[in-house]
Design brief:
alpha/beta, Rossmann fold, five-stranded parallel sheet, 6 helices, 5 strands, about 45% helix, binds 4'-phosphopantetheine
Length: about 160
């Protein structure tokens, strides 16, 4: 069984993330969506909510687990019995950071590979941060988020206005 770990902050999970997960299922038998606490990023949704939203956004996909992980990603990948870290790459601007992370993770554990999937063109501009900005300004979210995730994000800003 080939397992890929798709790590991220997922604050919140977007249609771009779901697209990468769906496409990675062509390469691996199971994808573990691994939600990092990343408190230093000041996430809008707490860890429990980010896991719940990731489950909602991937419930149409078979062979996907959503979990959280703490500590080093490579340790989690080993513990989970996975072979690879899956990351989406949107544009050249993602490259440097992704390159650094992949090399660092390889240094930490040579047995763990990082596999990059190019984002689909329709999602290549999409980031969770930009979607939050659109939501905060009352813009439409249907092209970016699963409808139930969009409702939850809209509710955050209605509650705060
Ligand atoms: O969605 P993001 O914010 O780009 O994901 C970042 C993530 C979760 C991949 C990164 O923060 C991470 O790997 N965190 C775990 C800690 C770790 O292993 N750090 C060393 C490698 S960067």
């Amino acid at each position: 069984m080939r397992i890929g770990v798709y790590p991220g902050t997922f604050d919140p999970i977007t249609l771009g993330h779901a697209n990468v997960i769906a496409r990675s299922l062509r390469m691996v038998d199971r994808v573990v969506v691994a939600v990092a606490p990343n408190p230093q990023k000041g996430p809008l949704f707490d860890l429990r909510e980010r896991i719940e939203l990731a489950k909602i956004a991937t419930k149409h996909l078979p062979h996907v687990d959503v979990e959280s992980f703490d500590g080093l990603l490579v340790n989690y990948v080993r513990e989970r019995g996975a072979q690879a870290i899956i990351r989406g790459m949107r544009a050249v601007s993602d490259f440097e950071h992704e390159f650094q992370m992949a090399l660092l993770n390889r240094k930490l554990d040579e047995g763990v590979e990082t596999v990059f999937l190019m984002a689909s063109e329709e999602y290549s501009y999409l980031t969770s941060s930009m979607v939050k900005e659109v939501a905060s300004l009352g813009g439409p979210l249907q092209d970016f988020l699963h409808p139930d995730v969009a409702k939850r994000l809209e509710a955050c800003f209605q509650a705060n206005s």
